[in-house]
Design goal:
GO terms for molecular function: cysteine-type deubiquitinase activity; endopeptidase activity; metal-dependent deubiquitinase activity. Keywords: Hydrolase, Nucleus, Protease, Thiol protease, Ubl conjugation pathway. This is ubiquitinyl hydrolase 1. It catalyses: Thiol-dependent hydrolysis of ester, thioester, amide, peptide and isopeptide bonds formed by the C-terminal Gly of ubiquitin (a 76-residue protein attached to proteins as an intracellular targeting signal). The protein has 1141 residues and is α+β, with helices and mostly antiparallel strands. The chain is built from 31 helices and 54 strands. Strands 12, 17, 20, 21, 22, 23, 24 and 27 form an eight-stranded mixed sheet that branches. Strands 2, 3, 4, 5 and 8 form a five-stranded antiparallel sheet that branches. A five-stranded mixed sheet has the order 29-28-32-30-31. Helix 8 runs antiparallel to helix 9. The two termini are 53 Å apart.
Length: 1141
Amino acid sequence: MDADISSSLKCIQLAGPDMLIDSYDQYNSQENDVVNITPDDAAQEPAEALPRADDFEAMKNHVLVDLPDTETEAEAYHTWHIEKWRTLPRKEHGPVFECGGHPWRALFFPYGNQVDCASFYLEHGFDGEPPADWYACVQFALVLWNPQDPTLFRTHTATHRFNAKEGDWGFTRFVELRKAFHQPWEDSTRHLIENDEANLTAYVRIIKDPTGVLWHNFEGYDSKKETGMVGLKNQGATCYLNSLIQSLYFTDAFRKAVYQIPTAEDANRSNSAWTLQRLFFRLQKDRFAVSTNELTASFGWDTRQIFEQQDVQELSRILMENLEKKMKGTPAERTLPELFVGKTKTYISCINVDFESSRIEEFWDIQLNVRGNKNLHESFMDYIQVETLEGENKYDAGDPYKLQDAKKGVIFESFPPVLHLQLKRFEYDINRDAMMKVNDRHEFPDEFDASQYLSDEARSKSSEPWVYQLHGVLVHSGDFNAGHYYAFLKPTKDGHFYKFDDDRVTRSTMKEVLEENYGGEYANVANGGLGQRQPYMRGYSTKRSMNAYMLVYIRKSRLDDVLLEVTESDIPSHIETRIIEEQAELARRKKEREEAHLYMSVGVITEKTFQAHHSFDLTNYDLETNDPAAAQVHRVLKATKVNEFAAAIAEDLGVGPEQVRFWAMVGRQNKTNRPDQPIKDVDITMEEAMTKYGSRGRPFYLWAETASIDEDGKPGFPDTSQAAGGNSPILIFLKYFDVKAQTLRGVGHAYVKKLDKVQEVAPHINQLMQWDPSTPILLFEEIKFSMIEAMKPKQTFQQSEIQDGDIICFQQNIADLDPSTVTYTDARQYYDYLLNRIPVNFFPKPGVDGPAFMLNLSRKMTYEQFSAKVGDHLKVDPTHIRFATISASNNKVKAWIKRSQNYNLQQILVSQFSSYGGYATHRNDALFYEVLETSLADYETKKIMKVIWLSEGIGKEEQLEILIAKNGIIGDLVNGIAKKLNLDEQAAKEVRVLEVQGGKIYKELIDDFNVAGVNEFTALYAERIPEEEANAPDDARFIYCYHFDKEASKPHGVPFKFMLQPGETLKDTKERISKRTGIKGKLLQNIKFALVTRSAYARPRYLEDDDVIVDLIQDGDEMLGLDHVNKARNFWGKAEGMFIR
């Protein structure tokens, strides 16, 4: 490979595939081997003299510059004297020499390798092919020089990873032949090549490869072979998941705990514990990168979640919570808290009196600030910094201490064995109004002592050192909008770090783990420079965009407990068994696909399947294979004889092979499928039988008729051929409609004579059903799905046009049947129900508990009929149930169905045409239901009022739905709220209702206000009147308050009503607002207060601390605006939060 071209490709890597090389001239312009760029004040210094080519040590130092972060294993140089240049063959090899235990030689094309330049390469010097796993990382230079004048030379330098596949590397355009032979070389009067001779000196430096991947192109790279570990496949944007999973996998105690979750009884793809166990097993056993598809599917994630970058910290917490629940009651119940949970103490300690208020809290990880902190120690000190409460901000310690100077802060009481540190690399930039990544330099050590961040009491309790060793570094490369995650992990106590980058695992150096992930400025960026191009970012940056995002440390004294050996005995046996079974099944299916042309599928209908059938025809070909009425589908070799297949079926049925006779099922013109004729030639193949008897373009189905052995030892199959006089037997199938049970089922088959009367089949039926011989029977012929006709008893079967395979349905003729006790009184009505039968799914109204279920109903059912069926299923009064259609786009309530509408179920489920264009699409297979406290007739005279109840200031919201009369008043609404919340009579009198529009209070609704006057597009808030307002004088002044973000037209949060005090400055008003809203501390300090009028384009009039609001109000239309960031905004741009099902 040409190293010049390789170098050039790096410069033009953004060009298309047909623009790899601009022109040959670019190589000819590279004759100045060294370019010295010096500052202006050094311009007068003399340039360093170039060495002579025969001063080999000096030339070596000149051409082989030291490569940063590399270590030399061996060096050598060798000179080849080239003679009679123009008489040499097209390709020539130089003498073999040794460096670093490897043989080397020069490869020379005297007339150019398809170019007008001399071509020189360095290649291995093995006699044949080198060993398959041989490689060497080499920095080398080739120097072509004039033996008569060593000051004339040409050099080229390159680095390359030599291996069996890429055994040579060098320079196709080493020197232009025309210039070397015929033009004075540079400033000399002589030529570079004189008398057809020249010297070529090869300088070779073998570079140590501590990671095994130095200058690796990763073509054919095998992670398992090189490192003993495998990676995880990226599904789209799941690199963050891969990093976290690998980190947890190599926390061996965690992996062992996951294996201890009992999943044998719940081993299915929706169980995230089971899929995580499978994933860990595959990481331990597989040879190649493992997919996480099963795991994300068990989380309930769809394509949208898979192609969205998510937050590692959030995923870690949700996964831990999910697994902790699954570990309850198992041997691993306390493992996760014992591994990952530490404790902090939040305290306020009085300085001058002996009083402290504190609480102990658990943490699974620690979030540390990066901005403003140079290293991990400073971040910890920032976390535990102490705030002094004094002056106007004194702490109220209660009786008897009252207001006191105090210290407030957080201190650690314990750290867990495995410490997860989340570095806050993303934060909200108020100037840009967006989330931004913090790429500041932040150093973290390989080891640190955490005892300095513990309380004195915690330090004194434990003699065990609190020294932590780095185990993992999870890295984010890119910016907030795009990026990539990978991880550096140390799988063993005394081993090396490895880089886990999706499906690739490589060994890493400590510089790659630490220094390259600190972030911060590039060391070699000159002042005012553009910086370097960043991966996954547009443009250049002076700061590294790849930096640590999460750190994993393990307490040194607990290393043996955390990084313990996970043996075969730790893996539940059912995991491997199940995976082996699945692999065997995959192999079987693969073999089936390969041999598919040799086989055919044959469906077999038997007496048993027919008796389990409850619908049209002999079976339904769309039934699930586990349905007892489904035809049994067999995979049969096409060359199998019919009698051989009959023997196999006979064995399944428990009869002799001669007792089975096949009838070919054919599709009739009326779209039914019935047995047509018996297959008498049993020596033909199954393929020939399908060709002869089957219907073209349809699957091949057979009915397996069985017969008992007669006295002659032969099966008693009637002869269906034309008998003398035309009175031949006809094969019919009998179905029974049970009027009382309202069911239909297959009974069996029978033979009748063509010339027999229809009524003559009745005694046979009574005997078959073990009924009294005098039982009256009604007979119907099932002609096709939509044609069921009563049969005339006195007609012959021939007159009734009965033929082989026809179906006759019978029922008892019950004279004293009460029609009110059954839905269908004869078979024709029931067949009509079957024809119009549809499965309808019923779901409880969203947000309401209740069972989901499915009922088979008729499309023709009226509202009352299907509501009665639902009421019967739910064991509730059907008049107390209401139904709603379900939106096809979002599965929410589309519209509530009115009971008075004269529609049947079909009309309700089919989407109706909208007057706004298109169809008002809703699901045609499902309805929502809601069980009401009153009848639907009464309910439809009332109205649902949605109210947001504010129970604790404005900090806690509760959604309420109150049912009141349509002509009711707000007082009725308040009574409904009181009843729903169990408020006493006095508390109910203190409830007020506010009408809110666009995040602002529109008005306060009085008790006798008619609810019909409430705008349906406004929100209603209800709250108990604060004590301060309840005791306010009659002349007290009030103001409506609302929140906005920068612009007054961007409201957010919950608005509220507030009482103003005459003469009170804004500074004091803030304290009362803090009590009213629960907003305290820094959040309150960051709020800017302003007076805002109600007009659409009002500009806020911002207030100062010494302003008196009462004095500044100009009219009653002004509101008090609280300008602060809307914390509810989702800056990650996700449609919904992360979740695990």
